[in-house]
Amino acid sequence: MRKFIFAVMFFMLLFAALAGCGAKKETNQQTEGSPASDNQEATEQKKTVPDLQPLLEISEEKNNVVVTYKVKNRAAAPKKLTFPSGLEADYILYDGANGVIKKYSDELYSTQAIKEQTLASGETLTKQFELPPLVNGSYKIEVHLAANEEKAKVVKEFTVEHLQYQAGSGKLSGQADPHTVEIEQDGKITAYQLSEQAQQEILELKDGTNVTFIYLENQQGQRTIQSFLKK
Question: What is the CA angle 80-84-87, rounded to 5?
């Protein structure tokens, strides 16, 4: 009888020891698996953050709209950027109806000079643009790097409310002199002065053409066309 009791106690102790080892092994496996899971999650989160982070700031300054485009290198290593035409950044400006007002690179002479720049970790590349004359209203702008390696594109809608420019339209009657143009509006001829930009643009326009334009009127009532709008 005593041997039987000892045998039962032995098997009970053996079973308890084996159960404890199994629980400890399972606990160790869970503990060992946690860091791997955390590292995988951190890696996935890191992939969603671009190495080059763009930022766009838009402000009204002295009756003009100024765009400041910044690109920060968030990577631990430097980033090499190659600009094939020398232009570092480009933009496309849209009106409220999504029509293109201006593409910056279209008005620049392309060059064959390749420019290279290395952006150190934590360093920021900053470019500033002054937009063409705009009337108050809603717009959208897309800005991106002109580099082969990265674009860092950012798109932003914005509204201007404090500009003094106005929109006009009519039929081009002719030029009184290189600085003055006459436009027929509602059956009347109105004289407008021309800015330097408008003087260049009018060379491509023919008399009798219907034109739209942006102009500025001073306190004396003199109107100056800042730019002609392309249709």
Answer: 90
Indicate the pTM of the whole model.
0.73
Amino acid at 124: T
Residue bearing tokens 């959208």: 140
- Short-list 222, 164, 166, 227, CA closest to 197: 227
- Which of 154, 182, 2, 190 lies closest to 71, judged by CA? 154
pLDDT in tens, 167-210: 999 999 999 888 999 999 999 999 999 999 999 999 999 999 99
The neighbour count for residue 222, using CB atoms within 10 Å, is 11
Q: Are 56 and 68 in contact (CB under 8 A)?
A: yes
CA 190 to chain centre: 40
Residue 45 has φ and ψ, to the nearest 5°, of: -65, -40
